[in-house]
Amino acid sequence: MLPDKLLRKLGMRHFSGSMRELKVNENLIDFASNDYLGFSKIPVLEESALPHGATGSRLLSGHSKAFETLEKRIAHFHKSESALIFNSGYDANLGLISSVAQRGDLILYDELVHASIRDGIQLSMARSLKFRHNDIDHLKILLDKFGQGTEQEVYVITESVFSMDGDQAPLEKIASLIQAHKNAYFIVDEAHATGVIGEKGEGLVQHLGLENEVFARVMTYGKAMGGHGAAVLGSFDLMQYLINYCRSFIYTTALPPQALTVINAAYQRLENGHVNIAQLHDVIQGFNRLVVQNGLRLRFRESDTAIQICIIPGNKNVRKVAGQLQHNGYDVRAILSPTVPEGQERLRLCLHSYNSIDDCERVLQIIAKSLKKNEQV
Ligand SMILES: Cc1ncc(COP(=O)(O)O)c(C=O)c1O
Question: Using a 6 Å CB cutoff, which residues line ligand 1?
Fold first, then answer.
């Protein structure tokens, strides 16, 4: 039983070919997960001996020495004054943004930021405007025009690696623009850069030496780090504020001890310079060469990250090619509208340190062949 209004909405999804469904794709070769370094499959021994639950919120029984030690390690690794662990990247973005941006403040955000950032913006009482994707001139116009009020803070928000496009934000340019504005603060979501960008996977902000120019970074642990959870990096004062006012931090059961052990182990690997990081970058370079060799350069977005995007307009068309790949044993997912704008439907290929060059070649051959067959090239 579902109210008519909701049934009609589901019907619309069916009609537009964009119905989302939960699908088990087991035993396929992984070109879909965010487990870029294969960390999720490395066993962490002590795990089983730990309690299964945290038993309460961080402000009640859920806090522990393990949180304190891990947060110190995270802050040290990322050259940040402080770090605060959240239950997920979604919770971190939602809570951070909705709690810091106040009524009368302004949020300027890249038009392609993740849903968790958008939801945080919606929950806040601040006014918000989006700037065109990675368009520094547009951001400057908005900052100059709307960011001058004496009483207002301006929060500029972007991702370092865009989750649905795989490209990187011009962080240095944005940071220097923000520096010229007294009341502007820079927030960067590093979900797809954590563990991937930088020699040791420190993220793009740190790779560019911008850690002191950024008000807050959001690092997530469900992707390359192979676990679950997230951390906000920033000043000690910011963490004090979040502990007091951030609802998605306060009103939820803390991460279980196992999750902390997994995050801890992942940081240990990064600190030691894990071989999989260099391997992942070899796979990315090899993949990009093969894109050109298979005549697909114009189909693929330029990307030297683990996320590679092949544009195939139309939900039906892109689903067909994804189906071909799955039929041949490769887990590649179609990203449909309305998740991306109509006409920009795409295959989202995630590369991993454990993908072989032969598999990359085969995947690209199947895409090229399938597009030719459907007369789309
Ligand atoms: C850019 C970005 N930010 C935040 C998140 C949310 O992170 P989590 O999966 O840890 O909730 C995601 C995950 O899809 C993401 O891609």
Answer: 88-90, 93, 114, 116, 159, 163, 189, 191-192, 220, 222, 230
